[in-house]
Fold these 3 entries.
Entry 1:
Amino acid sequence: MADAPLSLVADIGGTNTRVALASGPRLLPATIRRFRNADHPALAPVLRAFLSDAGSPRIEGACVAAAGPVRDGVATLTNLDWTVDGDQLRDATGAARVAVLNDLQAQGHALGHIDAANLRVLLPGPDRAPTGPRLVVGVGTGFNAAPVHDTATGRLVAASECGHAGMPVRTERDLRLARFVETAHGFAGVEDVLSGRGLERLHAFACAETGIAESRTAAGIMAAIAEPGPAQEAARLFACLLGAETGNLALIHLPFGGIYLCGGVARAFAPHLLPLGFAEAFRDKGRFSAFMADFPVAVVEDDYAALTGCATCLAAGAIG
C-alpha cells in the first residue's frame, strides 16, 4: 500500500469526522477512523493525527465532505464552528490535488458504488429498472438533500441547503408544531424537526400537547418507540414529516432513478418508517398521489458512503 498512489478522504459531520485512505476510487476500509469533533479545534489537527497514526504515507489527493454550504471552495459547517478550505487540506496532508464538497454531494457521488446489501428498500417504485435523476436526502445531526444527474460529461451533484427551508405544514397539528418550534429561532425550518435535535423538539411538542412532563434525548426516544406515549408519538410525527418533505423534494427534482435516505438518524429510523406512516405521508399529494409511486425510496445503511463518494469524485476529477 505504501507504493500505491493514495488519497485522503474525510466526512465532517456535526458530531464526528470520519477519515480514511483511498487508492484511486477504492476506499480502504481498514484505514477508517472516527474522531469526535468536540475534541479538536479544527479539521487540520484531525488530519495530521490520522496521518501520523497511519505512518505518514505520501498523499497525492485529498477530498473532504462537509456538513454545510461550500462557496468558492470554502466550507462553513452549519452545526460546528469550523471552516475548511483547500489551503488547509494542502498544509495538513501535503496533497497536490484537493477538493471540498458538501456532504450530500459526496453521498451523491457514492451512488452506484454502494453494496446492494447496504441498501434497505422502503418503497420499490414501478416494476421496471429505475433510470433518470436520483436524489440523496441526508437526515442526521442536520438535514439536507441533493439531486444527482449523470450527464455525457460526468456526474453532476448539485449542492443545496434545503434543510433550512420551512418545514412542511399539512394539518392543524403541523401548524401548532411550527409555532411551537419557531419560538427557538423565530422560524420553523425542516432541520428543526427532521434531525437528531429535531426529534427531541418533536418529543417536547408531544409532551406539551398531552401535558406530560418528560424529557428524553434522541437516543432515549428511539429506545422507547414501542411504548405508547410521547416518545412513540414523536417518532410518528417524525416519520410522517419525513415522508411529506421527501415527497415535496421528489416533486421538485423528479428523481425517477430513486431516492436515497442517508445519515445516522435515517439509518436508526429505517425499521420504523413504514409502520409509523412514512409511505402514506410521502404519497399524500392530492391528484398527484398516484404519481408518487414512480419514485423508489431506499435507506443507505453504509455509514461510510460519503467517504466512498469523496474517493470516487477525486479519482474522476469531478468537483461539485
Entry 2:
Amino acid sequence: MAFVREAEAWNVDIDRHINRIIPPSPLHRLPPPISRFLGYRQHQKQDVGNVLGAFWSLLGAFCGLAVVAAVFNNTKIIQMHHPPALIASYKGASAILEYNAIRSPLGQPRNALLGHTLSAVIGVGITKLFRLRSDFEKIKWIAGAVSCGIASAAMLLTGTVHPPGGASAVLAATSPEITEMGWYFVGLIMLGVLLMLIVGLIINNIQRQFPIYWWTPLSLREAREKDIEIGPDGTGGLQERNEHLEETESEEKILQITISGSGVTLPDTLALSSEESELLERLRHRLAGDSLVSSRHSISSGSSASMTMVPSH
C-alpha cells in the first residue's frame, strides 16, 4: 500500500527540459495581417457568441474536411495506396476541436499534430507486431485495443492529449485498407492534420482567435530566463513549478519585527499575546532610554494604543 501511495505523486515532466530550449514566440514581430492569422493578438478578448460561433464552426468543419478529401482524392501518389475518402479520425472529434472548441487545450496545434502523429506511429507499430501471427484477422481487435491504450498513455505523458488520436491508433489495426498502408499511414495523418490546421488558421481568425497558443500557454521567455518547469497535469491542463522562485519567495516571506525607540514594526499577519507585546514594549523603552523601564503596559495583540505598530511591506 505504501508503494501505491507513493505512486500517486509520480509525474513525468518532459516540458521541464524541452521548454528551456524552445525559443519564445516571434509572432509579435511579424506584420499584423500575418500574425493575426497565426493566432497572435496584442489584446486578448472573449470569444464570439454561440450564434456566430456555430456559423464559423459549420463553415470551418465543412471547408476543413472538404480540403482534406480533395487533396487525398486528387493526388496520384496518395491514391496509389487506396486510402479511404476521409480517414475516420478526421470526421468527428478533430473537426469539432479544430473549428468549434478552438479554445480547448486538446485542440491546439501541439496536441493536434503531435497527438495524431504519435498515436499513428504507435498504432502502426503495434499492428505490425500482431501481423506476425498467422491469425491476425481473428485478433486484430486486440491490436486495436492495445494500440489505443498505449497511445492514450503516451499522449498524457508527453502533454499531447488529442482524443481523435485514439481513433488513429485503432484504425491502424482494424481498418484493412489502412493496415495495408503501414508506415505510409503516419504521413497521411500528418498531412491531413496540417491541412485542417491551415484551414483553421484562415476560418477561425476572421472573427475568432486560433490557436490560443502553439506550444504552451505559459511564457517560454520566462522558462528560459528563470528555469520555470511547465508540464501536463492529470486533468489535461498545465501546471507551473519553479524551484528557484519558490525558494526566493520562501525567503521573502520570513517574518520580521523591527524595534526602535520610536516604535515597533510588526508584519500584518503576526498576532501577539499580551506577554509578547509587553516584552516588545519593554525593549522599546530601553532603546528609547525611558526611565520607566520597570513599568508594565498591558498591550493586546490586536491594538496599537500602547505602542506604535507599523505593518511591514
Entry 3:
Amino acid sequence: MPRSSSTSTVLPASRDVPALGALSARDRARRTGVPMLPLIGAPVLPMPGHVRDAVLRAMDKPDPRDSRGLPELRSAIAAELGPDIDPERRLLVTHGAQHGLSLVLRTVLEPGDEVIVPTPTYFFDGAIRESGAVPAYVPSREDWTFDLDGMAAAVTPRSRAILLCNPVNPTGYLPNAATIAAVVGLAARHGLLVISDDSWRHFAFDRNEHHPIEGLAEVWPHLITVTSLSKYYALATWRIGYVLAPPEIVDAMERRLQWEAVCCGAVAQYAATAALTGPREWLDRERSTYQRKRDLVCDGIAASGLPAPVRPGGGAFLLADCGRLGDTPEDIDRALLRNGVTAIRGADLHAPDTHVRLTFGAAEPVLEKLISAVKHALLET
C-alpha cells in the first residue's frame, strides 16, 4: 500500500520514545517564567591554558576521521584505566556516555531480551527500548543499596544483561567491592553481560573507593564500561566519552558508529587528550569541594523540615523525600518550580513518587539558596 501523501507523518508506536527526564524537567521550568537556580552536577570550569592551546592547534589540523577515536586519546584513557587495557582493541570514543550506552545496547541486545536494572536509576529506559529489549527493574533497599537477592530473582531465560550506574545516579550509592563482585558473580552464573555507567567514578566520598567491574575481568570477561569525560574532566560542552569492552564488541560498535556519525569531532578529542595528559590541579581543586557541598545540602534539607536524605557515597546527586510539599508528584514539582528549583521527578527515575533528584555540583552560595528555597516551599504548604 502506498504511503499517504498527507503532510503529517504518523510514527510507528515503536518509535514513540518519551523525552529524557532531565530535559522535560528543564522544559517545565522554562514554562513557569520563574528564574531558576543554576543547579548543576558536573563541574563547569574555565578551560586552562594547556587545553586551550591544544584546541587552537587542533583547529588547524586536518580531520583524521578515525572512527575508533584519536589514538593519542585512546592511549591516554588506557593509561588512566591500567596497564592491561589495550587502547587499539578495547576502547571506542563516543559522543558522551549517553551515545556510548546507546551504541552498546543496540549492539549487544536483540528484540525481546531483558535487561536487569536496579532502581532508582538513571534514564536508561529509552536506550533499552530503542534496542528492542525490555528493562526488568529491581527496586533497591530503603537505603538505596542494591537488592542482590531481588536481582537474582529477576533472572529469566530471556535475561541478557545487568545494567548499573556506579556510583548510582540519582541516589549517590557507591557499591563496595563485595557488592560489585556479587553482581559479576551473578552474571557469570547465568551467562549475562554486565554493563556499568561509571561516569562519576572520580567522585567518591568519605575516603571510600570506586570499584570498577573491570577489576573482575579475569573472573568474568563479559564486562562493558561506559564513561563520560564531562564530569571529572569538566568537558560537558564537548560531548566526549568512551566505551571499554571486549574487542569483538568494540569492533561491532565501531561499524555502527561509522554508519551513524562516521567519527567523533577531532577538536573535542584533542581537548580531551590535553585534559587527560596535562596537569590535574584545576580539576582536583573542584572535585575536593563536592563532599562539602554534599554535606551542606544533606544537612540543610534535614534542617528544613523534610526527612533527612540518604547521604550519597559518590556522584553529585541525591534523592530527597519531598512528600510534605504536595500530595502528588505534580504538586511537588510545582511547589519547587515556584521557588526556582528544577528537580527530576521520582517517577522519571523509577524512584518513589514522593522523591525528587537534586544536584549539588553548583557553587556553595547557590546551594544555600537551594536550601532556602526548599524551606520557603515548605512554608507555602
